[in-house]
TrEMBL record:
Protein name: Chemotaxis protein CheA
Organism: Novacetimonas hansenii
Reactions catalysed according to its record: ATP + protein L-histidine = ADP + protein N-phospho-L-histidine
UniProt region (Disordered), positions on chain: 1-26
Purpose: Involved in the transmission of sensory signals from the chemoreceptors to the flagellar motors. CheA is autophosphorylated; it can transfer its phosphate group to either CheB or CheY.
Stored PROSITE patterns: HIS_KIN (PS50109), RESPONSE_REGULATORY (PS50110)
Domain Response regulatory, chain residue ranges per copy: 490-608
Keyword Ion transport: no
InterPro entries (alphabetical): Bact_Chemotaxis_CheA (IPR051315), CheW-like_dom_sf (IPR036061), CheY-like_superfamily (IPR011006), HATPase_C_sf (IPR036890), HATPase_dom (IPR003594), His_kinase_dom (IPR005467), Sig_transdc_His_kin-like_C (IPR004358), Sig_transdc_resp-reg_receiver (IPR001789)
GO molecular function terms listed in the Swiss-Prot or TrEMBL record: protein histidine kinase activity
Compositionally biased region (Low complexity): 1-14
Domain Histidine kinase: 167-307
Entry superkingdom: Bacteria
Amino acid sequence: PYGMADGEGPAATGAPPPGEGGGDAYVQVPVSRLDALSGAVHDLMGVAERHDRLWERFSDLLRDMRALAHAPQRVHADPVALFSRMTRRLMAIGREHELMTGQADRALLRLGEDVHAISLVPAGTVFGSLAAMARRIAREHGGPQAQVEVRLRGMEVQAERRVMQALRDPVLHLLRNAIVHGHESRAQRLKAGKPEQQTITLTVTLTGVRLQVRVSDDGCGPDLKAIAARAVRQGMIHVDAPLDARQLLARVFEPGFSTRAHVDHLAGRGVGLSIVAEAARALHGTVAMEQAQPSGTAVTLTVPVSQRQRTVLLVENGEQMIGLPGRVIRHLLRVMRDDIRMVDGCPFAVLPRSGMTGVPPGGDGAPPDDEALVPIVPLSAFVGDDAGTGYLPVRSGAVTVAVMEVDGVSCGFAVERMVEVRTLLISDASAVGLDSELVPGIAWPREDRPVFVISPDRLFERWRARGGRGMHVAPAPPPQATPEARRAPLVMVVDDSITTRTLQKTILQAHGFDVMLAVDGEEALMLLLQSSRRVDVVVTDVEMPRMDGFALLAAIHADPRLATIPVVLMTSRDNDEEIRRGLEGGARAYITKQKFDQGELLETIRGLL
């Protein structure tokens, strides 16, 4: 968008680096990396072959055990010796499975490390051309004689290419903002004891698993009075709101915010910094502005170095495991019930003001100057079965609270239990029927219990929509009956996919159902016949090995002991003939996996009870 300046090479233009203009991007990969990848893939293929052989052995053993269980009178061998041989076979299979799992883990770890290393690029490959572009912007803004020194630091730091590239335009906005808003005349700079030439520094650093990109200048610095006046005019804050500099500077990232009196092609439209903030949120990161020392402005973008691995605080919310992004966690508290401050009927935690950005509300109960009130709301009011109401979960006379901060505002979310902090591999959650705005990511730790990763920005949006302060919430209700007196309905989930089984189990348990799992129709039928507790609903996949969903449906309806159990069929294909076959065979409902929605599943099951 800027063309080429005299004396500047192609890097000074607005064109993206090679491979970023919409076509395929290419990276140079050392041969040693390719050899390592090939080795890891070869190891995984070996594990897959061993897994197939192990499964055959296990199937043979399972068949022998079932034959013994169904017709023990036909066995002529010594039962003790036979049981001993079967036990040894099972233990041998277990040992080989353990060895195979370790080999697979090591190969996957190597593969992940090598693939991740290939995706890394130095910061200079993406940000190196921005210095020339900044000098061109300075000349456009201040005339042909305008000069600006742009210093690039940390250009050797490596991060994922897509992360670096996603930050390129936001960083260019920050450079433009530093030139336009930090501009001072020669006389002003000399009077302030500064060099005639403005200096802008772009610094890239890596701290743990987080990438920081900082743009600082030695210009005039942010005009806090002008920012406050503009925020008041736009209705962002009340004229008497007691905001500190940090909270005030957070307002400049709001859409439409600008302190420029006139609009030109470089500034004044109020879109630049909001684009930066939106880019940071899209990368699950943060952005903050501060007054640089001794003068000027500094803006820091902080994002995960990898977009698939994120550090989260695991908390329990009913039967669900929730992941709260570590980047927004400020305090972890255990607040005694008697220490909760009630203000206008809403619960607040009292914290030392040092380091806090929560704004105390007015009214009775306002804290002294050295304390800050942080509103407490139950996480269950926004996530899970109690969404919309929620209770403060009191355990042993105390409430467990995770204080989070977004855009300079703090709120404490009460949870049932904090588990641990973990770095997880996050997958897109949009395909599993969840609220993808609030829960954009899902992770599957080794426990096969999914972790639903919350978007803090969307969570705070929904909190603000309810008033942006403590909520009128009731304490957790006392238990009303024993488990025996009010036993939950039992749903059997039959699917050969462990992911589908586990996901459906988690959804159903979170909504008050007991769940029994089976890997195929044959195991499901055996469990139905042997279970001491009657199954209330069967939800089964159609395509499965050994006994598919149609065969299971027929077997259930053929057995008088099971014939009254309603069956819900689930399939990956939206096929009219298949649906007709299932319904004519006695299925009570049919759900297509491609259109899977947890609300539809729950409504269907409840309608059959």
